[in-house]
Amino acid sequence: MELSEAFGVFDPRGSGLVEQRSFLLSVQALGYEPKTQDIMEIIAKSTSRAHNETIDFKDYYNLMSAKMTEDDKREDILIAFKMFSSPETGVITLDNLMEIAEELKEDISHEKLQEMIHFADKKGDGTVTYHEFAEMMERPELE
């Protein structure tokens, strides 16, 4: 369902505004399950109107586009993690990085690969979990 269609379902009079409750229902129609309180906070922070009882299409579009982009980014991070990690262990190890470098015929030193693990490994156990990998990929210095 397109964003304009989802918005239009809850704006049958074509006023260009939907109530907060309708906004919540339209978000759910797109497959998201947010809490009502989360929706209220999002609307309060993001809308251009003073009383925030309704949301217009511009704000709706901006909110939903940001949410959909965030979801795409998470999916991309998961795909990348699966490419680097071992299905048996569910983590990224130095051996995994060495194998990938070899497959790609990249001449990367053992020390440089160890640095990569260390950069993401917050627990200090020599492995990178999905959570650590996702946090690393979302760091501003990598964007």
Automatic annotation (TrEMBL):
Cellular component terms per the entry's GO annotation = myosin II complex
Record carries keyword Calcium: yes
Entries under PROSITE patterns matching the protein? EF_HAND_2
* Gene Ontology molecular function: calcium ion binding
UniProt KW keywords:
Calcium, Muscle protein, Repeat
For the EF-hand domain, which residue ranges apply? Answer: 108-143
Q: Which domain of life is it from?
A: Eukaryota
Tell me which PANTHER family the record gives.
EF-HAND SUPERFAMILY PROTEIN, MYOSIN LIGHT CHAIN 1, 3
This protein's name: Centrin-1
Organism this protein belongs to: Plakobranchus ocellatus
